[in-house]
Write a structure and sequence with these properties.
7 strands; 7-stranded parallel β-sheet; globular; 6 helices
Amino acid sequence: MERIHPRPVSPAIRTRTAREIRSARRPRGHRCWGHLVAAPLWPMHDANLGTLLRTCDAVGACLAAPSLRWVDEALARGDTLRKPTCVHRIGDPLRWLAAERAAGACILGVELADEAVRLADLPVARRRTVMVLGHEASGIPPEALDLLDGAVEIPMIGTGMSLNVAVAGSLVLYKLAGLL
């Protein structure tokens, strides 16, 4: 008869308290981090904006969103944080992207493109980087593609063509922030 050996006892897993978590984070003086900006400039679903806003807070990024009434309402519903997250309201997405690029920001689109860098190969952002997310059905508009400095692609094995905006944006933000 086979003898069953019990698993070795491992030390108990201890979760950190909220105070310990807060004290380990880097301090921020101004609510606008400025280094990373998530820009879902052509949003389709309001739930995705609230999720992306939480990710922006988690990685220290700002959110740039169009000035549409439903977008403001979606952000207000999705912002369950005690302290406000930095949100920039954008009027004309193309004009704003052109101004960011002219000011020296790297404009990176999350898009399926021939020259796209795979997510695993994406380097950490070393300067101001604007991560552009397109419409979930049609992607980044052709006129905005000309304003991109590069594109990042998230490889997929399944049958879907892409992830939703909140998931795709969250993955890329974590990679750009150097947290993955």
